[in-house]
Design brief:
Blueprint lengths: L17 E7 L2 H11 L7 E14 L2 E13 L5 E4 L4 E3 L1 H14 L2 E7 L11 H17 L8 E7 L2 E8 L4 E4 L54
Parallel strand pairs: 1-3, 6-7
Antiparallel strand pairs: 2-3, 2-6, 4-5, 7-8, 8-9
The structure holds zinc ion.
Length: about 230
């Protein structure tokens, strides 16, 4: 008997033994995403939405490709929890995003940052637990046809990491992102507040860290008026 892939919820799909997920992010979206996520000393969050397709690139291997079309760079007001080590999206916002995916058969990639100039791009245990829960919820909510996928990205000033949820195994697996340059993190001016334990060292007072990046949603004046 030849070895087979681990049996999962969809073990009947035995044609394919190995699965892989690739994330394709257009440059213009990536630039905006990384500037948003890394432009603060607190964690930030964004959603990427796109289409998924599945194909076999060689016998016995299936590749899921997510092509990102839209980025939702969440303003701080859309976050229920926001600290240097944790970020949580307001429930009504995440529900609205899930509903959009349902209505338009979109795949969903959540992205968040770990601020700090030396933070390694490694998902924390809490991150992985959250990813597993939200990706399972995604697949439980969104019909599997046309194909959809759920994934997570983590950006730091030192790199990028990604996970996707393989619904056939019920597990998280590494995400490939061939469209993302290795040194994807943009140059954001370091500030004293970036250093862990900032304030413990004598020296100059911290410079105001957040500038324009903290105001992604300018208030629209009433003069903008409502269109008929
Ligand atoms: Zn995290």
């Amino acid at each position: 008997m030849r070895p087979t892939a681990p049996a999962g919820p969809a073990a009947g799909n035995r044609t394919w033994e190995k699965r892989q997920c690739r994330l394709i992010v257009p440059d213009v979206i990536w630039t905006g995403l990384s500037a948003h996520l890394l432009g603060s000393n607190l964690e930030r969050f964004a959603y990427l939405l796109g289409r998924a397709e599945i194909h076999g690139d060689r016998p016995g291997r299936r590749v899921v490709t997510i092509r990102i079309r839209h980025a939702l760079l969440l303003p701080d007001a859309a976050l229920a929890v926001r600290t240097p080590t944790r970020v949580e999206v307001a429930a009504d916002v995440s529900r609205a995003v899930l509903r959009t995916c349902y209505e338009h058969a979109l795949s969903l990639v959540d992205a968040h940052s770990h601020p700090g100039l030396s933070a390694p791009a490694i998902f924390s245990g809490v991150d992985r637990a959250n990813a597993l829960e939200t990706h399972r919820e995604f697949h439980a909510t969104i019909p599997a046809r046309p194909p959809v996928a759920a994934a997570s990205l983590l950006l730091t000033h030192t790199g990028v990491d990604g996970l996707w949820f393989d619904p056939d195994t019920g597990r998280l697996a590494p995400l490939d992102f061939p469209s993302v340059p290795p040194s994807a993190a943009p140059a954001v001016a370091p500030t004293a507040a970036d250093a862990p334990g900032a304030g413990a060292l004598p020296g100059e007072p911290p410079v105001a860290a957040d500038t324009a990046a903290d105001q992604p949603l300018p208030h629209r004046g009433a003069s903008a008026g409502a269109r008929p």
